[in-house]
C-alpha cells in the first residue's frame, strides 16, 4: 500500500505509523524525523531547515521534495510506503503525483487525522521522543516504563525544540493555511478517509485497520 498520513501537530501520525508499518511491511518516511536528523547532524540541509522548524513554519517545498525523492528510491520503499508529514502543501502533493507517475504508481489512500485544535497543546507539551528510532511517549497518555528512558534501548528521551505552546500556535496556523488545502486536493480525487484522532491510541489503530482492510 501507498499511504499518506495527514493531520495537525500531535494528531497521532507518528504514533500510528510504526503499527501500520509493521502490519503491512511498508517503509515509514517522516519528513519531520528526517529533517530533525539533518539538523542534529548539522548537514547543509539541516542548516537550511533549522530556522523555519524552530519557528514552527514549513521548510521550503524544494528541500522536502528533494529528501522524499531520494528516500523513496530505497529498495524497502518499492512495495509500499507511509508518508508521515508529507505532502504538506499543494505544490508538494503535485510534485509527489508527478514522481509516482514517472514510476508507474500512485497513492492508494490518504488518512486524515481529524482532531480539535484544543486537545493538541496537552499532547504536544507532554511528548517525549527517542530521537534515533522516532519512538514517541507521553507523560500522561503513553508513559515509558522508566521515566525519561526509551523502553527498547534504555537510551535517554528528549523533548522536541518545537514542542512548546508558543511554537505550536505557528505550527497549527501553518497546518490550517497550507496543509488543509492538501486534504481538499485529495478529497476531490476521492482518496481521503477521515479518522477520529481524538480517540485513545488503540481505538485509532482499530479505525486505521478498518480503512486499510477496505478494498
Ligand atoms: P513533523 O515532525 O511532521 O511534526 P508535526 O506535523 O507537527 O506532527 P507531530 O510530529 O508533532 O505530530 P504527530 O501527529 O506525529 O503526533 P504524535 O503521534 O507524535 O514536522 C516538524 C517540522 O518539520 C514542521 O513544523 C516543519 O518545519 C518541518 N516539516 C516537516 N515536514 C515538512 C514538509 N512536508 N514540508 C515542509 N516542512 C516540513 O503524538 C503526539 C503526542 O501525543 C505523543 O506524545 C503521543 O504519545 C500522544 N498521542 C498520540 N496519539 C494519541 C492519542 N490517540 N491519545 C492520546 N495521546 C496520543
Ligand atoms: Zn510526528
TrEMBL record:
Query: What function does the entry list?
Result: Catalyzes the reversible transfer of the terminal phosphate group between ATP and AMP. Plays an important role in cellular energy homeostasis and in adenine nucleotide metabolism.
Q: CDD domains annotated for this entry?
A: ADK
What protein name is recorded for this chain? adenylate kinase
Q: Which UniProt keywords apply?
A: Kinase, Nucleotide-binding, Transferase
UniProt family annotation: Belongs to the adenylate kinase family.
Which SUPFAM superfamilies does the protein's record reference? P-loop containing nucleoside triphosphate hydrolases
Q: Which HAMAP family match?
A: Adenylate_kinase_Adk (MF_00235)
Its recorded reaction(s) are: AMP + ATP = 2 ADP
Where in this chain does the record put each Adenylate kinase active site lid domain? 127-162
List the InterPro entries hit by this protein, alphabetically.
Adenyl_kin_sub, Adenylat/UMP-CMP_kin, Adenylat_kinase_CS, Adenylate_kinase_lid-dom, P-loop_NTPase
Single GO MF annotation: AMP kinase activity
EC id: 2.7.4.3
Amino acid at each position: 500500500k501507498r499511504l499518506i498520513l495527514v493531520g495537525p501537530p500531535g494528531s497521532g501520525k507518528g504514533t500510528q505509523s510504526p503499527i501500520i508499518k509493521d502490519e503491512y511491511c511498508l517503509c515509514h518516511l517522516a519528513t519531520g524525523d528526517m529533517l530533525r536528523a539533518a539538523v542534529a547532524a548539522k548537514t547543509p540541509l539541516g542548516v537550511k531547515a533549522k530556522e523555519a522548524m524552530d519557528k514552527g513554519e514549513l521548510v521550503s517545498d524544494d528541500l522536502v521534495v528533494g529528501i522524499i525523492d531520494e528516500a523513496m528510491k530505497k529498495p524497502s520503499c518499492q512495495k509500499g510506503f507511509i508518508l508521515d508529514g508529507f505532502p504538506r502543501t499543494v505544490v508538494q502533493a503535485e510534485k509527489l503525483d508527478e514522481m509516482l507517475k514517472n514510476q508507474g504508481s500512485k497513492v492508494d489512500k490518504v488518512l486524515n487525522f481529524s482532531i480539535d485544535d484544543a486537545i493538541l497543546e496537552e499532547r504536544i507539551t507532554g511528548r517525549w521522543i527517542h530521537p534515533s528510532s522516532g519512538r514517541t511517549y507521553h507523560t500522561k497518555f503513553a508513559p515509558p516504563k522508566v521515566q525519561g528512558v526509551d523502553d527498547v534501548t534504555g537510551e535517554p528521551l528528549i523533548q522536541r525544540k518545537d514542542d512548546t505552546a508558543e511554537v505550536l500556535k505557528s505550527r497549527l496556523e501553518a497546518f490550517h493555511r497550507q496543509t488543509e488545502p492538501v486534504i481538499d486536493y485529495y478529497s476531490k480525487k476521492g482518496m481521503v478517509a477521515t479518522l477520529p484522532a481524538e480517540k485513545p491510541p488503540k481505538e485509532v489503530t482499530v479505525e486505521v485497520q478498518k480503512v486499510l482492510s477496505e478494498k
